[in-house]
Backbone:
DNA sequence: CTGATATGACTCGTGAGTAAGTTACCACGC
DNA sequence: GCGTGGTAACTTACTCACGAGTCATATCAG
């Protein structure tokens, strides 16, 4: 390919690179993705990426920022619904399935075990994780307070269990690409019913406006 | 260091290298551990490792085999106890905490997200995971059958949730090194009680001979 | 003296990051 | 309308570090 501009403005090119890089990092993980891979997939050369993003870590940070924003806005949406307990859990899962459906790689990009342990992208991720941690721990703490357990370590461990349960449900869904978000939400409701007994309170309105129907509460 | 034998028999040296390598792989992960690291930690040189284990992957395979055997024997022990449901879960967790206490790196060695995606060590790990998967899925299937749900995908998803819950509890404990196995088992019982209601049936005898006391069942 | 135990010093591939050069767009003077 | 210089966009071809794996060689036990 000859050198020289192709008439693509920097902002456009950056957006294109980010799009491609998010897919690459999400599908293959940070460690298994080389900058050359991203450059090839985007149809450009490696130095252009370094020119625009400074480093592999810098590129990753931008991707993480983008992906985390998607997830976070979804979490905030279900937080704002005012539901609590299992109803809120189902609502959050449902929203996550719908948000991820057109861009499933987002999830693995954020929860990538091969992501760098330090640097700007680690900082971006840590900031997001911190917000998410607080949100989740507050919810768990409140529910456990209602159940009569206020031990901080118990709350911490329960929070870890809750997060891992959430992640495993999303992970299972990502591994079963033929399952629609709607079907997966129904599956989650069935599973919760199996574990916690019948939940008539879970007649939620997944996907719709959170306030359009009287939301149920559980706890 | 001068060359020449130091009077250490091959079997002894191999055992020593495995010991050191298990720690290194477990603590830092496969990807972040170089063969030179292991050699340095063992006080020997890199070619000796290649002479005895063939490759980094070969060394890792032996470590995985060793670690998986520890975990597997513990799982078999609680399976043989004859308990089911939550009682079995608690029993298994308790056994795992006790087995892991003197060698915590074993866990992360087996569940290392940076482990190679192919090769002998991958094969060894896959064999272990296959056995574990069957064991777990059978248990989950049986419990769900009792609850009236036999949908294969529901069972599969529930199994994923169960495994992740188990892993997160062990993971939480590994992150809180000051907590004793006994205290952690009690914490698990408290958490299960919080979620599932009071479980008088969970007056198990953790750590003792599984058959010495009438074990309770739950489902 | 033979073979097992052991090592220093290499090769080689890979991937991050860079230097230096090439081409097209665009504002400006005329 | 039309050269023309400046700058933004873009590439080829490199350096460099690091880690897996190898080779030739050295030393000691029996």
Residues:
């Amino acid at each position: 390919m000859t050198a020289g501009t192709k008439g693509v403005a920097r902002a456009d090119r950056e957006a294109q690179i980010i799009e491609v890089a998010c897919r690459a990092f999400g599908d293959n993980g940070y460690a298994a993705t080389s900058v050359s891979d991203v450059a090839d997939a985007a149809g450009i050369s490696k130095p252009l990426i370094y020119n625009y993003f400074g480093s592999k870590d810098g590129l990753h940070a931008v991707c993480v920022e983008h992906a985390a924003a998607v997830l976070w806005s979804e979490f905030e949406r279900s937080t704002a619904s005012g539901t609590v307990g299992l109803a809120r859990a189902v609502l959050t899962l449902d929203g996550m399935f719908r948000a991820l459906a057109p861009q499933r790689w987002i999830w693995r990009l954020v929860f990538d075990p091969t992501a760098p342990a330090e640097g700007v992208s680690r900082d971006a991720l840590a900031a997001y994780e911190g917000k998410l941690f607080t949100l989740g721990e507050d919810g768990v703490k409140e529910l456990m307070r209602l159940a009569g357990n206020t031990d901080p370590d118990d709350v911490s461990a329960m929070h870890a269990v809750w997060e891992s349960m959430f992640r495993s449900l999303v992970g299972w869904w990502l591994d079963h690409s033929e399952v629609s978000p709607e079907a997966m939400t129904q599956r989650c409701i069935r599973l919760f019913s199996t574990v916690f007994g019948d939940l008539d309170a879970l007649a939620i309105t997944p996907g719709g406006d959170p306030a359009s129907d009287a939301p149920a509460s559980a706890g």
Confidence is low (pLDDT under 50) at residues 205-219 of chain B. Chain B is about 70% helix and 0% strand. The longest helix of chain B spans residues 120-146. The radius of gyration of chain B is 20 Å.
